[in-house]
Prior knowledge:
Distance between the termini: 36 Å
Oligomer: single chain
Strand content: over 45%
Structural class: mainly beta
Order of helices and strands: HHHEEEEEEEEEEEEEEEEEEEEEEEE
Strand order of the largest sheet: 1-24-23-22
Number of helices: 3
Amino acid sequence: MVSEFGASSPEGILVTFLAYRTPILSISLSFLRRSMLVLGSFALLFAMTANAQTAKFIEAQTRVPSSSLNGPSRLAVDSRRNVYISDTQSNRVLKESWSSDGSYTETVVASAGLSFPFGVAVDPTGSVYIVDNGNLRILKETPSGGGYVETQVSTSPLSNPTGLAVDSHGNLYIADTGNARVLKETPSSGSYIETVVSSIGFNQVMGIAVDSIGNIFLSDIGSQTISKETFSSGTYAQSVVPTSGLNAPYDIAVDAGGTLYISDFGNHRIVEETPCNTGYTQSILPSYDLQGVLGLALDSDRDVFLADARARVIWQESAGGANLGPI
Length: 327
């Protein structure tokens, strides 16, 4: 498959790679244009002009400084507000270390041997986990002496792994997209014990988040749904989170209060689902000029960080304040 951007362009590389890695995304672009299937959103929406947004902003949107990003796809934020960026087309993962004056210092967590890094997560000890999509493996980068020591997380054979999350106990959750399943890797004696969380009804699960009590939330771009795996007595019960109008929900995050944040890629917006007595109340996170958000993450203050692959920037939406226009 050759994208309209040209095979050597950044967008073309991303489209071509995803078409190769994900069979459903290999449908021709002409067919995608006719049918507007959201599974072609990488190719289709990189070619679109971002929809105008006229919402009255009640949040402050700023840009996280970073060097020459090339298709940033996923993010993680640790307890110190450091931001980790999967800079996919540059085949590297960056760390933007936050300072109290609001500035960031950039370092490279990993780059050697990476091929199309996608999902990224960080545990309470500062270890960074990376979905090395092109090599079909999960890497762990353990802080050591000002750098990192790299090891590979042992898993059963993966097929197009994408999303990644880690909980407060160090359990790792993997969206094994090509195998239509979600894996849980539980640390045990220096290795991991693997279990299958679920594989029922999945189409193209790309995003994964875990709340403080072990419930798992999954975004599926094939079925345009958000599902919840409720943890109880060592097992999971699956349900669907009610949503409206999603178009290629590529990633998901959950805050301490249970509110969900969804990168609604095809609609150039971030959707919030706030728990209420009857389920969830849907609203839109005020934001400016989103062009292609593939990943999002939260910090402890509920600031939302967005990886806009098309604009090649990282946005920070801070609760409170006002946004009067472009940065």
